[in-house]
Specification:
- With about 260 residues, the chain is an all-alpha fold.
- It has 11 helices and no strands.
- Helix 3 runs antiparallel to helix 4 and helix 9 packs across helix 10.
- The protein is globular, with a radius of gyration of 21 Å.
- About 30% of the residues are buried.
């Protein structure tokens, strides 16, 4: 049935909705990335380098691992491995989100949306009913990713002008963010709590064993992440949600087919 709305109008509406939903994400990203910028400053990055790093790497854990590798003067191959491990969850998110697109969605749209996947953008995108219009993601990315990058750059600027004692205190805020992430998940799921506890104990134990002294901290963390997560996945596999059929609502989204 003809609705009187052209494809371009649908795309603009989807983009506008994405910007609207991305504003609170951008504000949260700015605050977190500001603390991350303090760490980037300690790693020797200038504001432009910090901005570019955050524009290309959209994960706090991934960027923190990146800056840790830089501070350790580790080789590029180790940096690539560390970032791959810390950001590998986005591959799974991209696979899940790809099921929200129409089957004939061009590969270029899938690639660009996959580039801009973050935990929060994935959350608002997967919650959309019906087929997902890529321009919705572009709208969210257009506001959220610059907020993340500007926060990192300004954090580096602040690190250059603030007293060393304040910079040291602000750098602790990033650890507080990680704690805020794992505590609710650990309280909600006993298995997650066990895995987190085992991770802490294993990390502490490895740091005390002289056999691993020649291995950088980032490599230790990456290997422990792969080993512990792999064992947990085998012992406690996540069951598929029963009774959920995303295809039922496929035709209910007004954004459907707008990007063709």
């Amino acid at each position: 049935m003809y609705t009187g709305i052209t494809a371009d109008q649908r795309n603009r509406n989807a983009f506008t909705n994405g910007v609207r939903d991305g504003i609170p994400i951008a504000l949260g990203y700015f605050a977190v990335a500001f603390s991350l910028g303090i760490v980037a400053k300690k790693a020797g990055l200038n504001p432009f380098q910090g901005f570019l790093s955050s524009m290309l790497n959209h994960a706090s854990a991934g960027e923190y691992a990146e800056f840790t590798v830089i501070m350790a003067n580790a080789p590029y191959i180790e940096m690539a491995f560390v970032i791959l491990v810390t950001n590998i969850r986005y591959l799974l998110m991209s696979c899940a989100l790809s099921q929200k697109f129409d089957a004939d969605t061009p590969f270029a749209h899938r690639l660009l949306v996959g580039f801009g996947i973050t935990d929060e953008i994935f959350g608002i995108s997967i919650g959309r009913t019906g087929a997902l219009n890529p321009y919705y993601n572009y709208g969210a990315m257009a506001i959220a990713l610059p907020g993340w990058s500007m926060g990192t750059a300004l954090g580096i600027v602040a690190g250059n002008v603030l007293p060393a004692s304040i910079v040291s205190a602000l750098s602790v805020a990033l650890y507080g963010m990680f704690i805020a992430i794992i505590i609710p998940a650990s309280r909600k799921d006993r298995v997650v709590g066990i895995v987190v506890t085992v991770s802490f104990l294993a990390s502490f134990t490895v740091s005390r064993i002289s056999l691993f002294d020649r291995m950088s901290d980032s490599m230790k963390i990456s290997l422990l992440t792969v080993i512990i997560a792999g064992i947990a996945a085998v012992l406690f596999p996540v069951k598929d949600e029963e009774g959920h059929d995303p295809a039922k609502d496929k035709d209910t989204d007004s954004d459907k087919g707008a990007y063709r």
